[in-house]
Design goal:
By secondary structure, the protein is mainly beta. It contains 1 helix and 4 strands, in the order αββββ. A hairpin with a 5-residue loop joins strand 3 and strand 4. Bound molecules: zinc ion. The site of zinc ion has 8 residues, from loops.
Amino acid sequence: MRPGRDIPPRRDESQYDEFEASELFCERCRQARPVRKRLLLVLPTGKKYDYVCSVCGHSVGSKMDDDTSDFTILRGT
Ligand SMILES: [Zn+2]
């Protein structure tokens, strides 16, 4: 018998995310701008993020990751 459930080592994602997409091309500014990453949704399949131009506030893109760590309770099998 194993003493409890194995917890996988958690990647340091918060730090990684900071460098993931620090600049994206903004259609409104017509040049690459630093972006703010905003958590939009937390789904069983992952989290959806929205990237917003930090200069004009225009949405420059969104991204889905497969981080389901918030939904491990649903993966009991
Ligand atoms: Zn912009």
